[in-house]
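Final paragraph of the annual report: two paired records, presented back to back.
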Amino acid sequence: MHPLVFMVFMLLALYSPSSISTREAGEGLRGFSIDLIHRDSPLSPFYDPSLTPSERITNAAFRSSSRLNRVSHFLDENNLPESLLIPENGEYLMTLYIGTPPVERLAIADTGSDLIWVQCSPCQNCFPQDTPLFEPLKSSTFKAATCDSQPCTSVPPSQRQCGKVGQCIYSYSYGDKSFTVGVVGTETLSFGSTGDAQTVSFPSSIFGCGVYNNFTFHTSDKVTGLVGLGGGPLSLVSQLGPQIGYKFSYCLLPFSSNSTSKLKFGSEAIVTTNGVVSTPLIIKPLFPSFYFLNLEAVTIGQKVVPTGRTDGNIIIDSGTVLTYLEQTFYNNFVASLQEVLSVESAQDLPFPFKFCFPYRDMTIPVIAFQFTGASVALQPKNLLIKLQDRNMLCLAVVPSSLSGISIFGNVAQFDFQVVYDLEGKKVSFAPTDCTKV
C-alpha cells in the first residue's frame, strides 16, 4: 500500500458509500463540442504578455522535452506499477461542470492519461487554487464507490486500496514524484455553459476526488484537475463510449491564434469532407492510455525515408509539442531534408532543437508522413518554427530518446481535424482551417 494512503484513511472515511445518493443514467447518443484553450493563448491563465513569440515557442519546446521524459518513464515496464503520465502544466485546458448543482472547473485535457480528477474538500494537502475546493457532500449526485464496484475495479490494482468503511481509494504517483490520493466516486459531469441549451450532462461518471495532492511542477491556481482522454477504461472517451459512438476529434490551432481550438464528441466528431485519410489505431495492452499508429515512411518530395517498422511505432499525442522520431530514423530524415533543401545546420542551437538554419525565402517540397493506409501531407507551419529573434527556422522534429518509439506532436497536427474512432480502431486526418470549425 502507498504510504500516503494511511495518512488519509481517516479523512476519506467521511465519504461513506452508503450515505450519498446518485442520479439515473443519462440520455442516449449525443454530439457536443468543447473549447480547448492553448496554455499560451491570451485566454489562458498561464499567458504571460511579457514573452515574445520566440520565447513562447522556446518554452513550449522545453515543455515538450519534459513531456518526453515522462512518456519515457511511463513506457519503462519496470516503472509501470507506480507511474502514470501527467503533462507539464498541460498544453490544452478545458472547462467542465461537476456535481448537482454544477460547479465550474478548469482542467488539463490530456490524450496521454485516463483518470478524471479534481481537488476535493475536506483536503489534507492540496495545491493552491483560486476557487473553493469541490465539496462532494454538497452534491446530490455524488456517490462514493465501494471496493467491489465496477468504478473501483476499473482502477489498476496497484493504484487502489479499500478504505475503513468500504470506500474505494485511488493512489497515483507520477514519474516526477508528484502524486494524488483520494476517493473514487461517480458524479454528473456537464459540458457547455450553465443555462445554455447546448449543455450536455453525463450522470454516474467515474472520477477521482483528490484530497492529498502534490505536484512538483509549477501550475496556475486556476487549474484544479485533469481530464484524461486516453484509451484506458477511466478516460472520458471510454466512459462515454456508446453515448458518443466511441468517437472524438480535435482541431488544433497554431500558437499565434487568439481563437480556441475545438474538442468534439459523438456525431460532431464525424468528418465527411474531401481529403480525409485514415490509418489503423493500435492500442497496446501494456500501455492502454496511449494511441499508437504505424509510421511506414516520411517522403520529402520524391525522396522516401522508410522506417522499416510495422508494429505500431509512433504515439499520436496532443500534449507533446514537437514531433520525436526514433534516433536512426531521425538521422536519415534530417540527412535527406538537408540534401533536398541544400542547407547546413546552424551552430549554437537553442535547446531542444537539433536542426536550424538561417531564414530565407525558399520552396519547401511536400513532406508527408506515410502512416499505414494514410498519407498525411504537412504544411511548413507543421514542421518549421521561425525564431524571429535569431532569424532562423528550426525543425519541429527532434530525435527521440525512446527505444523504437516516435511521437507525433501537436505542431504537426495544427489545422487538421484529427478523428479518433475507438470502436472502428482508426484515426483519420482531414486538412482543415481550424478557425472555422
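The closing record of the year follows.
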Amino acid sequence: MPAFTTEELTGLREQFPVLSRTVRADRPLVYLDSGATSQQPQRVLDAEREYTTHSRSAVHRGAHQLSEEATDAFEHARQVVARFIGAPRVEEVVFTKNATEALNLVAYAFSNAGAAGAMDGADPAVAERFALGPGDRIVVTEAEHHANLVPWQELARRTGAELRWLPVTPEGRVDTTELATIVDESTKVLAFTHVSNVTGAVTDVPALVARAREVGALTVLDAAQSVPHLPVDVESLGVDFLAFTGHKTLGPSGIGVLWGRYELLAAMPPFITGGSMIELVRMEGSTYAAPPARFEAGVPMTSQAVGLGAALELLEELGMERVAAHDRELVQHALDGLAQRPWVTVIGPASTGDGAVAERVGCVSFTVDGVHPHDVGQVLDDSGVAVRTGHHCAWPLHRALRVPATTRASFSVYTTREEVDAFLEALDRVPGIFGLDVEGSA
C-alpha cells in the first residue's frame, strides 16, 4: 500500500491549523511530539463546536430534542470506534477519560471481584477468571508505560498475587525467550504494550496471546501507540481487552477507550459508581446496568467523544494501511539520517523491518554522546523543532537499556520527510554547541 503523495500530504496538513504557526524567533513549527499528544484537524474542532453550540445536553437522560441529538452524537461516536477497531459488538466499547483510566478500570475489576457478592449472577467459569489472590500471577513486560505497569503493581499489592515481567532485549524488544516459564499456569493476567512509546518496537502479539490462552490468562493490550499508526483489529489480535486514547489519535484530550469482550465486561463489577450506570436503586442496595453503561458513571465526556469519532473517521478515509506506510517511511528516513551521525545512538530496532509486519513504528528515541537529552531538546526547540525528552513515563525500560533518558521524535499522519530533514539539520547544531569531537566519535 503506497504512502501519501506530496499533494495529498499538503492537503492533509492544511486541515491542521496549528501547523501553520511559527515559534522561537518566527521559525516554522516542526511538530515531532505526536507520540505525546497529536494535533487536531479542523474537522475535529468543528465537530466539537457543532455539538457544543447546537446540541449540548444531557446524554441518555432528557426527553427533549437536544437530549436526543446529544445521545445520537455520543452513540454515533461509539459506533465509529467499534468499526475502527473491528469490535464485534458496539456495546463492547467503553468511553473513559484516557487510556490510563481504561487500564485501571480492568485492574480494579480484578480486585473488586473479590468483594462479597461482586460476581453474583456471573457465569462461574468467567467469574473464576477474575478471582485473584496469593498463588496467582500477574505478568507485564519491562517495556511498559507506567500506565500499564503501576495499576498491576497496585493490584498485586491489594490481592497478594505475584507480579512478574517479561524482560526486554538489548534493542528494546519484549523478550519472549522465557515466555513459557514466566507465563505459567498460575498466571491470571498478561498485560503488555502493542508498541513501545520509547523504542517504537512492535510486540509479538500472536506469541503472547497464544501463550496466555494456553494457561487461561486474560490479555490486556495497551494500544495507545499502535492505534494512531497501524491497522488494529481486535478480533485478529485475539486479546481480551484493549485500551487507547483520543489525544494521540488526532482527537481531543479527556477521552479514551476500553474495548473488552462482552462476556467479560458483563461479568465485571463496576469501577466507579453513581448515576447512569445503574439498573435499579433502593436504599438497601443497587443493581447495575449492562455494559457499556455499567462503566460510564456520571455525565459522559460527550463533546470529546464526538471529536474522537470525527478524528477516527478522518483516519478511516485516509486508510490505515496508507497511514502505516507513511509512518514507516518517516521512521526509516529518520533512522537512516541518524545512522549517518556516529555521535548519536538510536534506542530500539535499527530498522522498520523488511517484511510485511512492521518492526517499529511511530517514533525514534536516541541519545547524543556526552549531552543530556534535555539539552538536546532545547537546541532542537530553538530551531523550531518540538520533541520529547526524559524517560517518557517508562523508567524501567530506560534502566533496562542502561540510559537515564532519551530524546524522542515522534510522527503522525501530517509529518513530512522535509520535517524529518529539518530535525536532522537542527540536530547537527548540537556538536558545535557542546564541543563534541565528531571526528573522534566516528
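The first helix runs from residue 6 to 13. This concludes the annual technical report; the extension proposal builds directly on these records.
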